[in-house]
Specification:
Blueprint (H helix, E strand, L loop, with lengths): L2 H4 L3 H19 L5 H7 L7 H11 L2 H9 L1 H7 L1 H16 L4 H17 L4 H7 L1 H6 L6 H17 L2 H15 L6 H14 L5 H16 L4 H18 L1 H16 L4 H13 L6 H19 L4 H17 L6 H15 L19 H16 L1 H8 L4 H4 L1 H8 L4 H18 L7 H8 L4 H8 L2 H9 L7 H24 L3 H10 L9 H18 L3 H17 L3 H16 L4 H17 L2 H7 L1 H5 L7 H16 L2 E2 L3 H17 L3 H16 L3 E2 L7 H61 L5 H24 L11 H4 L5 H27 L8 H35 L1
Helix pairs in contact: 4-5, 4-7, 5-8, 6-7, 8-11, 11-13, 12-13, 13-14, 13-15, 14-15, 14-16, 15-16, 15-17, 16-17, 17-19, 19-20, 19-21, 19-22, 21-25, 22-25, 25-27, 25-28, 26-29, 27-30, 30-32, 31-32, 31-33, 32-34, 33-34, 34-37, 37-39, 40-41, 41-44, 43-44
Length: about 850
């Protein structure tokens, strides 16, 4: 623990200053006289029950409160004596107890019920009467605490007990002659009782009380009863709801008190599913329309409630809306979504008024509720119409100046993306905006479903074209990197950890090269430089996932080498500890053979680490390391493992490490080695490992296929480019020759010279093409003569040269000859003759050079 953690806070510091300043007064006070100390002293030989009875009888209030708080413990230890001796004393004390003891008793009684220390029959006999007596305490907080306890008890009590002990007294407690607090308590109890009895009992005994309380003279009672009508409706069913509850709600919706009307509106919205189409269109819809029209003229708190329930309301009444009503409610939602922003945007500069802070908070709450309801409004307008009807509102909410609004949009972003399906690409810019939001709370809310969102973004519905998906990637990757960097520079390491964990999904989203160059090395940097252990572990696991799906062997080897050199062989012992963490993730994600091939020996090297903590962590890891071995394939690695353990046993000087080594040796001895062949006991693990190994081999095969494909595409591209260039040059030459043929007389000197120049140009083109456009499999043509013997050299070279050139000319020039078949100036035979002539000249030159070399060799041998 740091010094700052041990240092007292400002409040504690002030408290200590008061003690120092007034310490003498505390010691000289009359309450600390010897007589008082003697009175507060308790005999240590008393049992827990006797001590509790003594403190409740003659102790101070704080001592009595302590006994009441300890009641659940006494009930667990000795329930019979506690009920017989302690509980009656508590009942006596509560009559005159203060607020603190009353609240403590309510909590303790509820704890005893939840722990089931006694049977429910015993509990109702001993505790229920005390709870009912304190329900009408003059302090509202105490009364509510006991009421919460009673409502929890009602869930567990049998029907007969509820009827005799609670329902029958409730009739008198709900009368108008009773206190306001008594009538409020009665409302909440009736809402709870509605689910405990049959419909006919509720109709006969509870509904008359409900009607009476709905017409109470106090608006607080009407509000409370109105909010309980939802629970009562669920208990009595749809028929009685339609005939009894709905008329009461209609009357309450027209109440003179705005708070009562608001409660009635919220209850109507929550009960929409219980009303049929006629009730919705003839009764509910007119009330809702009237309520919405008057909302802007009323208090802003009504707008807050209305905006919260608007999504449920619109979808609940969707089937009965006319097109005009549908449009009206949509416009109402749009108006609420920008409430309070007009002045900021400068739309009402002439009517600019100073808003109170309370108003601004309510406007923010309204826009936040609109953001909460945005998925419901997409369903209301149909996802196909999103871009036309709601995109502008979506844009405004994602760019709202207040963090709570953007936070709510970030939470609901995944729901929006799911609803849009094939049109999800339309909100890609807003995803980038939220990823780059200045508030880390918004980023943290978005990260929760980031893998699912990215999956939808890059491989959305069937109608989203691949072109739009590819275009969405370039600005998404910078946004992801920016989000990680902002989280890294903040003090909210949990957000950073969460982000790194979610980034493990990227191999399914973007290409291997993009991950390698933009994210993989960043993960390694975090492991090496970050100071928060959970963040380092999250980065290590994500790096292993990236390595698992990397499709280039060269890159994989580079990363493995860096892990071994910078972590496993790093100068800091902290880095070497993280190397062992990384190896655990490697064993989890990769096959056993992969770990043994690259990491087994580097891990064993840490047995010689100078830091005891590293050796200790390695010892804990050794059983997992041994489980990666297969016999007899990895027999040599098993020998290395046993050798390292022997060295640890013999040479280890640290006592703690040696203790763990001995414990690890026993565990390793009990382990059963897996063999190359499948075993029944390891069948599932072997199957899983085999699947990992198969996927790793598949990555290698895919890499090889991609290389071959790229090579073939490169060759075809180069050949096509050169053939196109040759055609272009031939077309220019043909036009020149055509002019020369028309202007010159056959047999003249000018024509002869032009023909010679033309032959030379064709010869040069054929030679250059034949040397540049050779396929790699013909690259050994020039080496053919070296393989022949000295005696048959001339004939073999000429034959091989002609055959090689013939095959190449047939493959390469066939397109050229057919493409220019209409040109009389360049018959195909001339190009082939020129090609053969050039080949013969090359072969003759090679013969002469080879004969000179042989003659020199013969002279040397003779000498």
């Amino acid at each position: 623990m740091t010094d700052e953690a041990c240092r007292p806070g400002p409040d504690m510091g002030r408290f200590l200053d008061l003690i120092r300043e007034y310490g003498s007064q505390f010691t000289d006070d009359e309450s600390t006289t010897p007589e008082e100390i003697e009175r507060l002293t308790v005999d240590e030989e008393l049992s827990d029950i006797e001590r509790a009875v003594y403190l409740l009888s003659s102790g101070q209030d704080i001592q009595g409160t302590s006994v009441v708080a300890n009641l659940p413990v006494l009930m667990r230890q000795n329930p019979a004596e506690t009920l017989r001796r302690v509980l009656p004393k508590i009942r006596e004390v509560l009559h005159v107890a203060g607020v603190e003891m009353q609240l403590t008793a309510a909590v303790s009684f509820l704890t005893v019920l939840q722990e089931e220390s006694v049977s429910i029959h015993t509990y109702s006999h001993s505790f229920l009467h005390i709870i009912l007596q304190n329900l009408e305490h003059r302090d509202a907080g105490v009364s509510n605490a006991w009421l919460e306890t009673l409502l929890a008890v009602i869930e567990a009590l049998p029907k007969e007990t509820i009827r005799h002990e609670i329902l029958n007294p409730l009739v008198s407690k709900a009368q108008l002659s009773q206190t306001l607090q008594s009538r409020l308590v009665s409302c909440k109890i009736m809402g709870k009782l509605a689910n405990k009895f049959e419909a006919h009992i509720i109709k006969r005994e509870i509904l008359p009380l409900v009607k009476s309380l709905c017409q109470d003279v106090e608006y607080e009672v009407r509000i409370c009863m109105c909010r309980q009508l939802e629970h009562i409706a669920q208990g009595i069913g749809t028929e009685l709801t339609k005939t009894v509850v709905l008329p009461e709600l209609v009357e309450l919706a027209r109440d003179e008190g705005s708070s009562v009307r608001l409660a009635a509106f919220e209850t109507l919205v929550n009960l929409l599913d219980m009303f049929d189409a006629d009730d919705r269109s003839q009764t509910v819809l007119p009330l809702v329309k009237s309520f919405c029209e008057k909302s802007f003229k009323a208090d802003e708190s009504i707008l807050v409630s209305l905006s919260f329930h608007l999504g449920k309301l619109c979808n609940g009444l969707y089937g009965i809306f006319t097109p005009e009503q549908h449009l009206r409610f949509l416009e109402f939602y749009k108006k609420l979504s920008t409430l309070g922003l007009q002045q900021e945007n400068g739309h009402n500069d002439n009517q600019l008024q100073l808003q109170t802070l309370e108003q601004e908070k309510k406007y923010i709450s309204v826009r936040k509720n609109c953001a909460y309801n945005f998925p419901a409004m997409i369903v209301f307008v149909d996802p196909k119409n999103f871009h036309l009807e709601l995109y502008s509102i979506f844009f405004c909410l994602c760019h709202d100046p207040e963090v709570p609004v953007r936070y709510t949009m970030a939470i609901s972003f995944y729901e929006v993306a799911k609803l849009l399906n094939s049109g999800v690409y339309t909100i890609h810019k807003e995803l980038v905006t939220l990823l780059q939001d200045e508030s880390l709370e918004v980023l943290d809310a978005l990260v929760g479903h980031l893998p699912e969102i990215l999956e939808l973004m890059t491989s959305g519905g069937e109608n989203s074209g691949s072109e739009s998906k590819l275009l969405s990637i370039p600005d998404l990757i910078p946004a992801l990197t920016t989000a990680e960097q902002r989280a890294a520079t903040s003090l909210k390491w949990r957000t950073h950890e969460k982000l790194l964990q979610k980034y493990a999904c990227l191999p399914h989203i973007i290409s291997s090269d993009q991950i390698y160059y933009r994210f993989l090395h960043r993960m390694l940097t975090i492991i090496l430089t970050n100071n928060v252990l959970p963040v380092q572990k999250a980065a290590a696991r994500t790096l292993c996932v990236y390595l698992r799906y990397n499709r280039k062997q060269e890159q994989r080897h580079e990363v493995i080498q860096k892990l071994i050199e910078q972590l496993g062989q790093g100068k800091s012992y902290w880095n070497r500890l993280r190397f062992l963490d990384t190896c655990e993730f490697i064993m989890e994600l990769f096959s056993k053979s992969f770990f043994c091939k690259y990491f087994f020996l580097p891990v064993l090297e840490l047995t010689h680490d100078p830091v005891a903590n590293v050796r200790m962590k390695l010892c804990y890891l050794l059983p997992k390391v041994k489980s990666t071995l297969k016999i007899p394939t990895d027999k040599h690695l098993l020998q290395q493992l046993e050798l390292c353990i022997r060295k640890l046993l013999c040479q280890e000087k640290d006592k703690d490490v040696l203790t763990i080594v001995k414990r690890t040796v026993l565990e390793l001895d009990r382990m059963e080695m897996s063999v190359d062949a499948f075993q029944k006991r390891f069948y599932e693990n072997d199957l899983l490992d085999q699947e990992k190994e198969r996927q790793e081999h598949l990555l290698l095969e895919m890499e090889q296929l991609e290389k071959e494909k790229q090579q073939s595409e490169g060759r075809s591209t180069s050949i096509n480019d050169k053939m196109f260039e040759k055609k272009r040059r031939d077309s220019k030459t043909s036009s020149v020759l055509a002019k020369s043929i028309t202007l010159s007389v056959p047999g003249s000197s000018s024509g002869t010279s032009a023909g010679k120049d033309d032959k030379k140009s064709k010869l040069v083109r054929s030679q250059s093409f034949s040397t540049q456009a050779l396929h790699p499999k013909y690259s050994n043509i020039d080496k053919c003569p070296n393989k022949s013997s000295a005696t048959g050299y001339t004939s073999s070279v000429s034959g091989m040269g002609k055959s090689c050139m013939l095959s190449f000319s047939d493959d390469s020039f066939r397109t050229h000859s057919t493409g220019n078949s209409g040109n009389t100036a360049f018959p195909s035979s001339s190009s082939s003759r020129n090609l053969f002539n050039s080949a013969d000249q090359k072969n003759n030159g090679n013969k002469e050079r080879q004969s000179r070399k042989m003659s020199i060799k013969n002279r040397k041998s003779n000498s």
